[in-house]
Amino acid sequence: MPRNASSQNDSPWRVGLPTLLAALLAAGCSGDSGPSQAEIDAQAKREAAAVAAATVHARSVNEVRETRLANLQKPDGWLSLVGLHWLKAGNSYVGSGATKGVRLAAGPEEVGMIRLERDGTVTFRATRGAGVMYDGQPADGGTRRLVTDAEGGTPTVVGFNQGDASFIVIKRGENYGLRVRDALAPTRTRFPGLDYFDIDSAFRFDARFEAHPPGQTISIVNVLGIEEAMANPGVVVFQKDGVEFRLEAVDEGDGRLFLIFADRTSGHESYAASRFLYAEQPADGGTTVVDFNRAYNPPCAFTEFSTCPMPPPSNRLNLRIEAGEKKPLPLLASP
Fold first, then answer.
1. What's the CA gap between 167 and 281, in Å, rounded?
2. Contact, 234 vs 218, CB < 8 A?
3. Is 178 left (phi over 0), alpha (psi -120 to 50) or beta?
4. Which candidate, 271, 177, 186, 213, places its Cα nearest to that of 168?
5. Could you tell me which residues come within 8 angstroms of residue 141 by beta carbon, excluding any fewer than 6 positions away?
6. Which is it for the CA torsion 173, 178, 183, 189, positive or negative?
């Protein structure tokens, strides 16, 4: 037999070719050829819808963040706080002078005299020539009753220092104090902006709302150690990676669910004491959205002159919430 003929007949390629062609034909005729065009189109639509939803979500979160930044930077925003002075019953002179009973960080030596009655009534008499205003209107020299923040309306704003500074009366527990603001405070003029985790839809949850009996309250302690009973309409329940988490909600009077929480990022990437978040109270008592991408720092993260509530023990989550606002950045250097 010629050598070439022998090599042709014994070649594995020549022997296996019919088998390979048969296998290819069989695969083409079977249902294992891959997804159909309809399935491919359906998957493409699902992916496009997911991208669109993520875009809408990111836009809404960024809008909330822009509003928050603008509010913080207002002349009378949280960044302008420069003092918190607790009042004693009776008369106290108010001003920047060293001998004043309530010594302010800004303004003239004497702004006026404040009086706290034992029933909680607070009055103020402006010092002539101090340039005092009540809610933007010049003081008339007489005694004025000041509305506190505990009366359900807008507290009286006592302005001075050409309108750059002001104070209101706040009530915490049984204590009354002056919360003082100055638009020229370094915490405002040297504010570096806000830092956030990346927006992540994995931290946006459809949470179950479990209502408490009407009138139920929860004990909330603020950073000053003052304990206060607050309306506790219910608890929100969500799942992350198959684990259930619960957050007790507080109602501040506007019907929304106010969530005060800490988590495993607290004191590390995020502010140590707590973070805040709002959710809508469901009309039907069913579900609400808990979006931690909207979580933000309390005022006490930026100033020592606030009275932030602390999370109750039940709201300290054994979970890393890698979403929302991070801990504050250092102030910018002085110009």
1. 33
2. no
3. beta
4. 177
5. 125, 126, 128
6. negative
Residue 287 and residue 204: Cα distance in Å, rounded? 13
pLDDT at 168 over 50: yes
Residues 109-122 have a mean pLDDT of 98
- C-alpha R_g of the chain: 32
Count of CB atoms situated within 10 Å of the CB of 296: 18
Q: How far is CA 123 from the centre of its chain?
A: 34
Name the token pair of 225.
């150690």
Of the candidates 265, 320, 271, the residue with the CA atom closest to the CA atom of residue 299: 271
The CA distance from 125 to 145, in Å, is: 9
Q: What is the pLDDT of residues 209-252, one digit of tens each?
A: 999 999 999 999 999 999 999 999 999 999 999 999 999 999 99
- Mean local confidence (pLDDT), 28-37: 67
pLDDT, residue 6, reads 37
For the cut 50, the answer to whether the pLDDT of residue 8 exceeds it is no
Residue 15 has pLDDT above 70, yes or no: no
CB 132 within 8 A of CB 106: no
Whole-number Å distance between alpha carbons of 231 and 220: 10
The number of CA neighbours under 13 Å toward the Cβ of 287 is 8
Amino acid identity for residue 122 in this structure: V
> Tell me: the pLDDT tens digits for 252-304?
999 899 999 999 999 999 999 999 999 999 977 699 999 999 999 999 999 99
Strand boundaries in the chain, DSSP class E: 81-86, 90-95, 102-103, 112-116, 122-126, 133-134, 137-138, 143-145, 158-160, 165-172, 175-182, 204-211, 217-221, 227-231, 234-240, 243-249, 257-261, 275-279, 287-291
Could you give the dihedral angle defined by the CA atoms of residues 330, 333, 334 and 335, in that order, rounded to the nearest 10 degrees?
A: -140
Strands in 175-182's sheet, in edge-to-edge order, are: 81-86, 175-182, 165-172, 158-160, 133-134, 137-138
pTM of the predicted model as reported, rounded to 2 decimal places = 0.84
137 or 20: which leads in pLDDT:
137
